[in-house]
Design brief:
mainly beta, single chain, 92 residues
């Protein structure tokens, strides 16, 4: 599970992709400056983007993402091939 702070991001602009072991999260801010306004300070400007190399193979088909109160939570279960297996030792 991973959490990303994305305050002020439009939920319909969120894009989450997994490609070749890299998680990419992108979103656009919901609030734009009014036409002709002069900003004195702007804390949330432009696109928010995170790119993370995943430590193991994931099952992207089973991934889940939720966005609540500016926090994006993504659950990426490990792929069956990446899970640890215990091998029984037969002694003779």
């Amino acid at each position: 599970t991973a959490q990303f702070a994305m305050p002020g991001v439009k939920p319909d602009s969120l894009a989450v992709t997994v490609d070749h072991g890299v998680l990419l999260v992108q979103g656009e801010p919901a609030v734009a400056a009014p036409e002709g306004a002069k900003a004195l300070w702007q804390g949330l400007a432009g696109q928010t983007q995170y790119r993370i190399t995943l430590p193991a193979q994931v099952d992207a088909d089973q991934a889940k993402a939720t966005y609540e109160h500016g926090i994006l939570t993504i659950s990426l279960p490990k792929a069956a091939a990446a899970r640890t297996r215990t091998i029984k030792v037969n002694a003779r």
